[in-house]
Amino acid sequence: MSSGPAVPSSEPTVTPEDTSDGVTTVLGEAEIARALTRIAHEVVERNKGARDLVLLGIPTRGVPLAERLAERLATIEPGLVPADVVGELDVTMYRDDLHKHPVRTIGATRLPASGIDGKIVVLVDDVLFSGRTIRAALDAISDIGRPRAVQLAALVDRGHRELPIRPDYVGKNLPTSLSERVSVRLVETDGTPDGAAGSGQAVTDAVLISQRPTSTSSEGTR
Hints:
By secondary structure, the chain is α/β, with parallel strands linked by helices. It has a domain at 29-176: Rossmann fold (3-Layer(aba) Sandwich). It is built from 4 helices and 9 strands, in the order E-E-H-E-H-E-E-H-E-E-E-H-E. The protein has helices spanning 29-47, 62-76, 132-144, 187-190; strands at 17-18, 24-27, 53-57, 86-88, 120-128, 149-157, 169-173, 180-185, 206-211. It has a 5-stranded parallel beta sheet with strand order 4-3-5-6-7, with helices on both faces. A 4-stranded antiparallel beta sheet has the order 1-2-9-8. Helix 1 (29-47) packs across helix 2. The longest helix is centred in the first third of the chain and has 19 residues, at 29-47. The model is unreliable at 1-9 and 216-220 (pLDDT under 50).
């Protein structure tokens, strides 16, 4: 296993950038890229390589984050093919708030050809909040296979846990209040490099904080 390039041992330190519309950017494109690179090295170090890893992204933004992590793992572990270790895990029917929101679009669960039995599964999500989405993901995993271990990587941990769930890898610990909303914007899910939804403005990766609207947001159940 090659050691790969040196990476910072701590999470990125970023000065929040306030905008006129009340939205604060706490992580920009470069900081997100560095955080993912650091997480990839931590995954390899903890698991003594990447041979038995499977990265399962939780839709929506956990999927492209898992794909990016796989690409970084491939630069550390020669011979690793990103497409062979990445999948996506739909947790819709395992959520404990389904009775409150019965009309949901059911996604697809896609596993690598090797499956997850005996593997080290790393769940990948964008924002870790209450922990209920991850609980649903654990239930979903138990129905499709028996991995050797399950770990959790989150780009942002904003706290306010309602269940005893803790991430193994974190891009940024972000203390927040319940009145704030944390949003992750990624090129793959929120636009294209040429412009967002015809706005003429380029979409870039970012983690944003804003005040939560008065109505209940689905983010509160993550």
